[in-house]
Amino acid sequence: MNDDLSDVAELFREFQKTRYSKEPYIEGTWLTKHHGKDQRSQTVWSVALPTGTYTYLPAAENNDQKVYRYDVVVAETNDIWSLRSPILGDPRGKSQ
């Protein structure tokens, strides 16, 4: 947006993102700027596994699984167009 919020500052461009090997249920992608950094956030449903771990794979793959929680995933960068790195995993080791 322009500083006065009157219009978009540039034409819209499509994000090139690294896809998940199996796409989870993602919604609510949002772009914002916070303390001079660009942030992209999205919400992802996670599913509890019998092993006590969690996965972002769709519950539809196994109908006896129940959606466990709604997680927010945030990427922050100096340049919004550089947010194209693959997702490597959950640093807590809770997702697969």
Q: Which descriptors would you attach to this protein?
A:
mainly beta; 0% helix; 96 residues
Descriptive notes:
- With 96 residues, the protein is mainly beta.
- It has strands at 26-34, 37-48, 54-55, 67-77.
- It has a domain at 26-80.
- The chain contains no helices and 4 strands.
Whole-number radius of gyration?
Answer: 16 Å
List low-confidence stretches: none
- Biggest sheet details: 4 strands, antiparallel
Number of strands: 4
Q: Count every helix, treating DSSP H or I runs of 4 or more residues as helices.
A: 0
How much of the residues is beta strand, in percent? Answer: 35-45%
**Principal-axis shape:** elongated
Task: Give the overall pLDDT as a whole number.
Answer: 71
N-C termini distance: 37 Å
Task: Tell me briefly what this model is.
It is built from no helices and four strands. With 96 residues, it is mainly β.
SSE layout and pairing:
Blueprint lengths: L25 E9 L2 E12 L5 E2 L11 E11 L19
